[in-house]
């Protein structure tokens, strides 16, 4: 408000950060950290970008839904001049006037690999119950963790088979009878026989006292963008048996979880092709936000976020090409980790990675550590050191680009400010002001980079390239048709901007070792469902899409790891149930362990400092109680 100064402004004033960096203690920590700097392959040259004032104009993309969307999508898919108009109207030509880009070469691949450093190497942290203690039982809104399932399996209180048999009726789609489980909307396919076989084998291992790992017998699921042996990967599309072959082997992260004994319940719902952020899917149905059924889950990993939020699984595998792990994690009140580019596997994209969503930070870390084991058959992934193998310590530093941060809606901004104050006042973090150039243009560059890549691959994987949009839902016909209009020169400019941003981020991470760049995960408090009709045919709302991706895109374009943590709740604008809010931290390439450490402190804030603590949604499912009842009934 004019004439007033908030507490946040007084604590973290805009402009000089001398109030922080003049500290002799911090200066000493920074110098020590620089002297033992991590070595990397592919690290950008640390060059500060020229100062460019922050600017952001209101987006003016047309919004389509229902019957109008169907007709409009058909017209857009057929008329090239309309596609070109919409491309320009979206502002995708906005890089052409950026004169500083002329000094930068393009960078096509954001992969940066931290090299193994013998001097800082420590024993890899074991993924066992001693390393990941359970949260106190009296915590409000407490989620069941893998460690708790593991302990109950060891004691005989539960068996993996009882848990699997309890979950199957809840998640199964039954097209023959029309009877579907209460949570089946989040699933696309479940192979019951395979699930029960895996559960029986896990139960037998526990009876013999020889479980494979802490994840043995733990239920999980896989977003339908990653391969699981025996399943088709549809990417949220209608099934096409000619194009979608049954996978002969699982993707690398899924393999590592399977080897650890995790029980794969099936493939889960997502936004078709991962092309937007609602998880509105007319093909398979749209899972509603567990906290408020008048809101979207967010996407494109909306199925995974729903499953974790509703308590069905401690962790699930998602993917993130433009916030697709972090946005639904924020909307559904769970934890999500977008790893460094190519850290887990090669997704054949310059922006997309796979990564876990989880109900607790401990489960997020366990799931990540196992999935991130270097793959010897992948020449890039194999170069990464095993997660948790470095003993380096860094100063505790949070960076705030205030003009960008302040773009968030007031309730979101306030909740995230409270967490930053907590980190500063209670946990000893230093807070520094930073500047990042071209965040508006950078978001455009990331948007049309991913849409162009999607369009190229979608056209390449159909039998008739002339009718390549035919089987897509109406909203995606518009998005991909527009993305396909990107001229080569503009795509080239986007990769020059990628290089400029990566070099500037390298400059910041070298200036402030251990820096975590903090923003809200998304500036808006959830995404309300406009009408029931929107769920039938989909919706195309580029303005809201751009708005809710305002902070998440940079980690994708530049390849950095980023984490989203729930930090509070706000009142809804419709429906019943408060809306979760997430905070995001983006770290230096390869700094997943650092981010997970900060995530533990965000979890501590939510559980201990946030008024009322964590809240579970109304449809949260107590799987243990159901399984215990099954055990008591003699069905083990």
From TrEMBL:
Q: Which GO terms describe its molecular function?
A: catalytic activity
Q: Any idea where the Amidase domain is?
A: 186-596
Q: Name one Pfam family in it.
A: Amidase
Region Disordered: which residues?
A: 1-29
Recorded hits in InterPro entries, A to Z, give: Amidase, Amidase_dom, AS_sf
Where do Polar residues bias regions lie? 18-29
Q: Which domain of life is it from?
A: Eukaryota
PANTHER family, sorted: AMIDASE DOMAIN-CONTAINING PROTEIN, TRANSAMIDASE
Q: What is the designated name of this protein?
A: Amidase signature enzyme
Q: What species is this protein from?
A: Hyaloscypha hepaticicola
